[in-house]
Amino acid sequence: MSSEIARREFFPLAMAGVVSAGAAAAQDHPDNPKVVREPPRDTSVVHECDLCVIGGSCTGVFAAVAAARLGAKVAIVELNGFFGGVATASLVNIWHSLWDLRRENKIVGGLTEEVIDRLRRVDAVTERFRPAPGKGSNHFELNTEVLKFELDHLVVEADIRPFLHTMFVCPVVEDGRMTAAIIEDKSGRRAIRARQFVDATGDADVIARMGLDVYKRQDLQPPTYTCILRDMDKIARENPGFNINRVIFDAQYEQAIREGHSWTASVPGAQGHLMLAGARVFGVDCSDADQLTQASLEGRRKVASICELLREHFLGGKGVPLAWLPAKIGVRETRHAHCLHTLTAEELLTGHRFEDAIGNGTYPIDVHRADRAGITWGHLPEDVPFYQIPFSSLVPRAAKNVLVAGRNIDADEGAFGAVRVMVNCNQMGQAAGVAAWLALDSNVPVDSLDVKKLRATLRDQGALIV
Ligand SMILES: Cc1cc2nc3c(=O)[nH]c(=O)nc-3n(C[C@H](O)[C@H](O)[C@H](O)COP(=O)(O)OP(=O)(O)OC[C@H]3O[C@@H](n4cnc5c(N)ncnc54)[C@H](O)[C@@H]3O)c2cc1C
Fold first, then answer.
1. Which residues pair with 408 in a beta bridge?
2. Is the pLDDT of residue 22 over 70?
3. Which of 82, 86, 369 to mutate to test the pocket of ligand 1 (most atoms within 8 A of CB)?
4. How close is the Cα of 331 to the center of ligand 1, in Å?
5. What is the CA(134)–ligand 1 centre distance, in A?
6. Do 429 and 63 touch, CB atoms closer than 8 A?
7. Nearest one of 58, 51, 49, 50 to 405, comparing CA atoms
């Protein structure tokens, strides 16, 4: 069927006000013609549990698994048809070091290490060392397609109820407590009742829709449209000195994307393939639906241009240098929850030790410019081998039974530039899951948790709590 015919068939139905079976007709708003008034409706409860995690990246899955392993009945809601968030949907496949910068002590363990071990068993991870390897690796390159399998296994093994292809649309809030998550999926609109919630949407969708305090920086770090290129070994062999990170910005090629910053990673098990994170889209807010759509189109246009450049100038005008596109543009930053503590760059760079520390990291401050090429870096001084992430930066102000984890953490621009990487988000996820369980177990609001018990329980789960 041509798209013209499809359009002609679709529009008369829509304009005639045809609604799907079971739906009630909306009405025009009496005062505002730009607004449609939806009728009130009853929504059936599909599931009841102790903890409902919204967002199924590694952060969200780790929160769910941590709580389930303590005995909680857990559900997880994920928009995609698979878990993993930016790692799987946007093909971002580097996890940073588990060791401190001196490579004397391991500082990250828990579910992050467990997943790396699982991937290692099936040859789906490559450990990279600095030129003079010490005890700890510099970073890990993952096959994130295999990561999808492992995250499925973790969820199924822990008997967590998964809701894939499911969008969280709004919270039900009673006396300041969230009591249910309203979801939309193929079956329609449904509700999940829970006693605790973790917002691992990256965009603080839950916190924002609860009406709790959120903020967005003026200069949001830009999203990047990644891709996996093939035949890169052949191109490098046949073109001595070839450097993909230079070529794609080189103005001598008309298809060059000119401005940006790029980096690559190998893909374990896929010989000659390279993950390229190069097509930045500037000045967009990906928590705005229309801007997200435009950013996706623009990011894909840039990747298409890179592929055309490679085909024309390095493959003799033959073949397709593209192996995979991501399911989604990679979003670095949108909303943050205002929490009990705003983590600062100064705290990171001075190695401040927190009594409620739930995670440790070494990744430097790395702030991508919002409007053009360029990155602001900030490195830990020699006497600071790692920094810490406090639990209080995951506890939204005025929240009773909701926590955040992942890139929606409360952090200033510099601190966020560092803690946003996955080994850090993973630790936040595991901590949020344990904290949600403890809040239930001790029947206290999330801001009154016994942090000593939180840290001890995390330690029991293999997390490295220093
Ligand atoms: C291009 C790029 C390169 C990067 N490079 C690296 C790197 O090399 N190493 C590194 O460690 N980090 C890197 N990062 C940063 C890191 O990947 C992210 O900060 C991190 O993955 C964020 O994790 P998250 O769980 O907070 O959010 P996300 O990974 O964005 O996960 C949020 C999840 O929630 C789901 N979701 C959102 N809204 C809803 C909703 N309403 N209903 C249901 N589900 C919902 C999403 O589908 C998604 O699965 C990079 C990021 C980008 C964009």
1. none
2. no
3. 86
4. 6
5. 30
6. yes
7. 58
Residue pair 73/192 in contact by the 8 Å Cβ criterion: no
Confidence of residue 134 (pLDDT cuts 50, 70, 90): low
Ligand 1 binding pocket includes 92 (Cβ within 6 Å): yes
pLDDT, average across residues 245-264: 93
Distance between CA atoms of 31 and 251, rounded to whole angstroms?
Answer: 54
Pick the CATH number of 46-218+334-460 from 3.40.1190.10, 3.50.50.60, 3.10.105.10, 1.20.20.10: 3.50.50.60
Q: What is the pLDDT of residues 136-160, one digit of tens each?
A: 678 999 999 999 999 999 999 999 9
Q: How far does residue 321's CA lie from ligand 1's centre (Å)? A: 26
Is the CB–ligand 1 distance for residue 118 below 6 Å?
no
What is the pLDDT, as a whole number, of residue 261?
85
Q: Check residue 26 and give its pLDDT.
A: 76
- CA dist 118 and 381 (Å) reads 33
pTM summary value: 0.94
Among 418, 388, 404, 421, which Cα is nearest to 336's?
404
How confident is residue 287, by pLDDT bands cut at 50, 70 and 90?
very high
Q: Whose CA is nearest to atom 15 of ligand 1?
A: 421
330 CA to centre of ligand 1 in angstroms: 7
pLDDT of residue 24: 60
Distance 186 CA to ligand 1 centre (A): 24
Is 224's C-beta closer than 6 angstroms to any atom of ligand 1? yes
